[in-house]
Amino acid sequence: MEKFQRKLANIINEFFLDMPELQNALHHSKPFAMGFTIKFGPGRKPRKSRPCRKRIRFGVKPFYEVRYEKDCVHILAMLPGVKEESIIVDVRPDWVRIAADEDYARYYKEIPLKCTVKPESTKRSFNNGVLELIIEKSKAK
User: Contact 130/65 with Cβ under 8 angstroms?
Assistant: First the structure.
């Protein structure tokens, strides 16, 4: 097992030394995803694929919590790294959409609700990366 681990460590080190673009990417301020594969076969030398680098375009799902109270729905969403101006909240009777887009942080989440709400009654606050929404329930349903 030790021999395999050393061999794998050597392959990975060789791979990273062979990639000057990785060095540049690590110093790049925008989010990206980078990947490669190493294929092993019985009795064969491990082969590595060409590196693939892609900029992340889709938002990350924020951590959130939904609480159903007697007269309202209370939603907390964690959106670290964004300014309040860049947050878009779309409230519909049966779902809420939260989106935020900055150069270094992107979030997107559609939250289905278990009850109907009044979109026009939405109260919103944002403090220290935490978005708080309080939405009145509608009388129907």
Answer: no
Of 53, 51, 47, nearest in space to 11 by CA: 47
Domain containing 26 equals: 2-55
- Residue in the block written with tokens 């509608």: 138
pLDDT tens digits along 47-82: 666 655 544 445 678 899 999 999 999 999 999 888
**Residue 82, Cβ neighbours under 10 Å: how many?**
20
| Total number of domains constituting the chain | 2
82, 132: one domain: yes
Sign of CA dihedral 30, 80, 83, 58: positive
| Domain membership flag for residue 141 | no
109, part of any domain: yes
Task: Kindly report which listed range (39-43, 89-93, 127-131, 135-139) carries the lowest average pLDDT score.
Answer: 39-43
Tokens found for residue 56 = 């992340």
